[in-house]
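Limitations

Structures in this collection are predictions, not experimental determinations, and the ligand pose is part of the prediction. Treat each record accordingly. The example that follows, with S-adenosylmethionine as the small molecule, is included so readers can see exactly what is and is not provided: the inputs are given verbatim, and the output is the predicted complex.
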Amino acid sequence: MNGGQEKLKFIDLFAGIGGFHVALEKLDFQCVFASELRVGLSELYEENFGIKPNRDITKINVEDIPDHDILCAGFPCQPFSKAGSQKGLNDERNGSLFDHIVEILEHHKPKYFILENVRNLETHDKGRTWLYIKDQLENRLEYSVDKHIFSPHHFGIPQHRERFFIVGSLNGLDHFNWPTTTPNQTSIFNYLDENPSNATKLENEKLHVLDLWQEFLDSLPKSAKLPSWPIWSMEFGATYPFEKLTPYASSSRAIGKTKGNFGTSLLGMTRDEKFRNLPSYARTEEETFPTWKKHYIRSNRAFYEKHKKHIAPVIKKIQELNIPSWQKFEWNVQGEERNIRNFIIQFRGSGVRLKRTNFFPSLVTVSTQIPILGWEERYITPSEGARIQSLDHIQLPENIGSCFSALGNAVNATIVNLIAKELIIESAAPNLTINGHKNGKIVNNHIPISKAVGA
Ligand SMILES: C[S@@+](CC[C@H](N)C(=O)[O-])C[C@H]1O[C@@H](n2cnc3c(N)ncnc32)[C@H](O)[C@@H]1O
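Predicted complex:
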């Protein structure tokens, strides 16, 4: 209770580190139930918000969940994301979690819901997954439903993180407008700590990788255009088959006449040895490569032929690196000065990637991909990561890997806050009472929302 008026109540399913909680608490709504499977995150949730989350939502009886006005859920996205298995709703472990949301909505009939998932949800399984979700929400549960893709950078927060938001209302959505985006960006420099003492410095071996790629850039004539496709240095000198048939579809004899990684002769090797000397992406068990892969291989080989007299010495050193992804380089900063230290850097599975400093790449759950500030030769700090997720005033996991994994899982709290404001407060006309709720508080007067909004 607050000033004699009861607050609007929400539940936070798949609560993670609490992005929805932070967003809705700012609107003075009250969390009455949370659910989070992971021990560490659920303990932290209790520390931050004073609510002990139920652990596994699949194990609870819907009747045991308290009544609420708003259901929030950022349901697990692995089955829908491009990086995941793409099994979608057929994923035994996670796909059916959406059906638990449906069950809770069906039983409790909250007036509103806000769901969040990866951008790819809409197109997953040729759109069938989204059609199923929409059908359940609209036809089975009779909610009015709308969806939108938003990223923090649409609201001036310097992180590129597109996510799929779904809202539902039992009272129709005629009153609802998605929050207004802004073309203006806040500089990432406003989001950085000044000389943070807790920052993790970039390891020496990675500094060495950057030095080698800088040497590569410096070796090229200024007039040589840098590729917009990923540089796969293992293709430099390679001649194994790729245009018509893959190595997998070729005879061992035919492969033996060609060259593998960095021009290694494959002559006289067993088939297994030959394959060990090919790039991992060329060992796939398929008859032909997809067009994009052929394009990258062809372009890399042509690039090397054109520039080898300049770059051969540094490529010899890059060949010595013991992690294949360090031998790949993504210059995603066309037209900029050729100084690696000017950019945001990520050591990704796909290669060493450079990004401009206009916004951060999406935080992801893989802690090895924490963005690096090239000019300070350090990883971003947990507080910087929290800031670009609008979660700056909560306690974070102490371990840096767990911390970035949680931040990479989280929903940006500003986006949810703006959506909730539009859905539940602002667009319902501030001075009108909606089904007994006024400005987020319950009052005794009951006017159906259709009247309140249409009035
Ligand atoms: C995409 S994250 C959502 C993060 C959250 N919205 C936030 O802001 O941090 C999904 C979360 O669901 C949790 N989860 C997965 N299966 C669960 C289950 N059966 N019951 C409760 N939580 C679950 C995961 O541990 C993960 O933290």
